[in-house]
Specification:
The structure holds 2 protein chains of 2 kinds. Chain A is α+β, with helices and mostly antiparallel strands. Chain A folds into 2 domains: 32-180, CalX-beta domain (Immunoglobulin-like, Sandwich), CATH 2.60.40; 183-284, no CATH class. Chain A contains 4 helices and 13 strands. In chain A, strand 12 (191-194) and strand 13 form a beta hairpin. Chain A is elongated. By secondary structure, chain B is mostly beta strands. Among the domains of chain B are: 34-128, Immunoglobulin-like (Sandwich); 129-275, no CATH class. Chain B contains 2 helices and 34 strands. Chain B has helices spanning 2-18, 264-267; strands at residues 34-37, 42-47, 51-54, 57-60, 70-78, 82-87, 92-95, 102-111, 117-128, 133-139, 145-152, 156-159, 174-179, 189-193, 198-200, 230-234, 250-254, 259-262, 303-307, 312-316, 325-326, 344-350, 363-368, 374-380, 387-393, 406-409, 415-420, 423-428, 435-438, 446-452, 463-469, 473-481, 490-501, 503-510. Chain B is elongated. Chain B starts with a helix and ends with a strand. The chains are: A alpha+beta, B mainly beta.
């Protein structure tokens, strides 16, 4: 009987001790790489942005002629205490961009440094005039190596990352850059078109030429027009006043700035009216 | 074998017991019930002055007054989203620094051991003691700018050390403490000094150096920030209730002589674009303005300012214009807008004088020639073509007129008061009947300010006189100027003498928060 009690006590002790051990689940899956590009809405916190299979590259927002676009590539599996190689190539199936014209040839081999869980690859893109009319795409694909395979050929969106447009399923070994230089009317544009196509408001009708005139002469960027915070009314009025003074001076110097249709560029404060489609006629 | 029997019996008992339904019991233990009383439904306090003290009575069914067993939370709701814990003690003692509105206040007492919580809610109505009264700006004993206020909510109370406790750095060369009045969204309380001008929190009279004019500017030309301290404001408060000469427009002149004009409802706030102290034909040249924003007090639709470079009055006729206009003269005019060589501006002031049909108030200026001769211009700074009303040559009988520290024009009489040290004079400039008066009864103290009331009770047009004595400190008195045209009398007004003040340099009326 005593022996039985001792057995029972030992059994209890064993169970109690083993119960304290925390069971850590080891990673089970591929040791590989995937494109870890996240973007979402400006109102959502960046850590809630969903992973995306594409990136928009809008040169009008960037404002630079050539850029080096950073793209994040992350790993699955444990970190290693040595560098590992992965490869990137052009995915011709989803590419309309032309090498050396829209992008510079990309480096094939990239490194995940030892101890790191991600790295940034850089793609050099060029701003060319044709992008103002026709957008192009540049597809990238990850190539498996002996050290790193492809982590998520079938990516399922993470439910908690919903701070933007969620793509439910995609191949995270592929990433497409949608490149354009097309200028659309920004979120904040304090101009209007009145009866008879006459320009009105503070800025008049939107045109790429007018925006480029503002950017070149008035110390603003296209991005400034993205919100009320960066383009409040008082700044809009200041901008139109500055622009009007320059436009008038150029007009007086007989070098007026014209819109594409030949009419005089208009903002509030210039001493002329402009009607869309009615070209200015130079008086002798 | 018995051990197997015992084991089987034991297992059966466990299984049998596990099937037993827990029916609960009525063997309840009493809990420690808390009851909070002695909290009013509302507390009325003055921000910046009062300390909110609440001593609730808490009775516990099982416990005594051992406060260590409880957590206490005094939580105030600010707006719709902010909850701020303003106290963690049994009794509340909170120095109120809140905007003057009503706030819900929640009291929570939680027993640490059990989590049992008792709740009591109330409201706190925050008023400001500073919403109505006379704003005084001057110097303290050390020569630094200091502000005080004679608050007139119920009784008249002197609030001292406003600037020195405001959070602003020490300032020098005081000019004004002035409330803009006008639309709520655009109201500011400005402390003007030549060493820096800042707007204060209207409820608490506090501020930081970030509350500066530069923050209100959207300009595209290079301006030296050191020159951007406002020293003059238009329009001014024109009634005891706080009405101003225009709710549409605002103008400010800086210590550097730039004139800024705003149309707040169009610009989306109390903001300003590039300065307008320039003429349209030469926009590149900014003309330094004298620190006088001349306008018709009762209705400001335009602004006249003085160009100190070319010695001329210029008119800003529209608050949407980018520049000001010159004003032309004709030889038969009473006086020139464009000064002859050697004539400069000494002083200018807006009044409620309506001579010549100037229903909204004439302005006056004092000019000085190179030979020391002085002149008085009276004009209506209103509209696209300001009107000249009269010219007066200052006669030699005006003792030490050129030495005056201060001038003040009466709205109701042809009289300008001026002070030289501790001497007060009144010069009646009525043509061919000029007279000079002196007022020795005022005493020997240095006069630090003269100012006619054009804000509170303009028909009476009281004269405020501030004096200073290092022993008895500053003194402010209000006088009525007698109406007998044959004499200028100063009639002290009852309950209108205030002592132990700063060395007062300016006084302005504040009517609302």
């Amino acid at each position: 009987m005593k022996r039985l009690i001792i057995y029972v006590l030992f059994l209890n002790l064993f169970i109690s001790l083993t119960a304290c051990k925390k069971e850590m689940m080891e990673y089970e899956g591929r040791e590989g790489v995937y494109f870890a590009v996240q973007h979402g809405t400006s109102t959502a916190a960046a850590n809630r942005w969903p992973y995306q299979p594409f990136s928009d590259v809008e040169f009008v927002r960037i404002g630079a002629p050539d850029i080096e676009l950073p793209i994040k590539v992350a790993i699955t599996g444990p970190t290693k205490d040595y560098d590992r190689t992965f490869k990137v190539a052009i995915n011709q199936d989803s590419t309309t961009a032309l090498p050396n014209q829209h992008y510079e040839p990309i480096k094939e081999e990239w490194i995940i440094p030892k101890g790191a869980i991600s790295t940034i690859i850089k793609i050099k893109l060029k701003r060319t005039p044709d992008l103002e009319i026709t957008p192009v795409t540049l597809g990238l694909k990850l190539i498996p190596t002996d050290q790193l395979s492809l982590s998520f050929p079938e990516w399922d969106a993470i439910p908690s990352l919903n701070g933007g447009t969620v793509v439910p399923k995609f191949d995270a070994s592929l990433h497409t850059l949608r490149i354009n230089d097309i200028m659309v009317q920004p979120a904040i544009w304090r101009g209007s078109i009145q009866a008879g196509n006459r320009e009105g408001g503070v800025f008049g009708a939107f045109s790429r030429e007018k925006m480029e005139f503002f950017i070149a002469n008035c110390g603003v960027t296209y991005e400034d027009f993205s919100s009320d915070a960066t383009m409040p009314i008082v700044r809009s009025i200041l901008l139109s006043r500055d622009a009007a003074a320059i436009l008038k001076a150029l007009f007086d110097a007989k070098t007026p700035i014209l819109e594409k249709d030949g009419r005089l560029m208009w903002v509030e404060g210039v001493p002329w009216t402009s009607n869309i489609g009615v070209p200015w006629v130079r008086t002798p | 074998m018995k051990i197997y029997h015992y084991t089987i019996i034991f297992i059966v008992m466990i299984f049998t017991g596990s099937c037993s339904k827990d029916l609960g019991n009525y063997d309840y233990q009493p809990i420690n019930e808390l009851n909070i009383t002695s909290i009013q439904s509302n507390y009325v306090v003055r921000t910046g002055i009062d300390t909110l003290r609440i001593t609730p009575n808490i009775t516990a069914s099982m416990d005594d007054a051992d406060t260590s067993k409880y957590n206490y939370f005094w939580i105030i709701r600010i707006g719709s989203n902010v909850l701020d814990t303003i106290g963690r003690s049994r009794n509340l003692e909170y120095a109120v620094r809140l905007n003057p509105v009503q706030y819900p206040l929640y009291y929570r007492v939680t027993e640490k051991k059990t989590g049992i919580t008792a709740i009591a809610n109330t409201t706190v109505t925050v008023n400001t003691a500073f919403s109505r009264g006379l704003l005084l700006m001057g110097e303290n004993d050390q020569g630094f700018a200091e502000a005080e206020m004679l608050t007139m909510i119920r009784d008249t109370v002197l609030v001292k050390n406003i600037l020195s406790t405001s959070g602003l750095p020490p300032l020098k060369d005081p000019i004004s403490l002035v409330h803009t009045g006008g639309t709520e969204a655009y109201i500011k309380l400005w402390a003007f000094t030549k060493s820096g001008s800042y707007y204060l929190d209207r409820a608490t009279l506090t501020g930081t150096v970030n509350n500066n004019f530069n923050r209100l500017l959207y300009v595209s030309e290079s301006l030296d920030p050191a020159t951007l301290h406002p020293v003059a404001l238009a329009p001014q408060i024109r009634t005891a209730a706080g009405a101003i000469g225009s709710t549409l427009y605002r103008a400010m002149i800086t210590v550097g002589g730039d004139v800024f004009a705003s149309f707040p409802i169009v610009l989306g706030g109390d903001f300003f674009n590039n300065p307008i102290n320039r003429v349209a034909t030469n926009q590149a040249e900014r003309l330094p303005a004298a620190p006088y924003a001349l306008h018709a007090i009762n209705n400001m639709s335009s602004l006249v300012w003085y160009d100190t470079r070319y010695n001329r009055f210029l008119n800003y006729s529209s608050f949407t214009a980018l520049a000001s206009s010159t004003i032309s003269d004709t030889p038969t005019d009473a006086f020139p807008w464009n000064q002859p060589a050697g004539r400069t501006l000494v002083y200018a002031e807006n009044t409620r004088n309506t001579d010549g049909g100037s229903t909204n108030g004439n302005s006056f200026s004092i000019m000085k020639d190179a030979n020391g001769a002085h002149h008085i211009y009276k004009f209506y700074a209103s509209g696209a073509t300001p009107a000249k009303r009269a010219y007066y040559a200052v006669k030699p009988i005006a003792t030490d007129f050129d030495k005056a520290n201060f001038y003040a024009f009466s709205s109701n009489r042809t009289v300008v008061f001026y002070a030289v040290g501790n001497k007060l004079y009144a010069y009646d400039y009525n043509v061919n009947n000029e007279r000079i008066y002196q007022f020795p009864e005022l005493g020997a103290d240095e006069i630090s300010m003269l100012k006619f009331d054009t804000q509170i009770d303009q028909p009476t047009n009281s004269l405020y006189i501030a004096t200073y004595n290092s022993a008895t400190k500053g003194k402010l008195q209000r006088f009525r100027v007698g109406t007998n045209p044959n004499v200028v009398e100063l009639l002290p007004q009852p309950n209108s003498t205030w002592n132990n003040l700063i060395k007062v340099k300016d006084v302005n009326w504040r009517a609302v928060n």
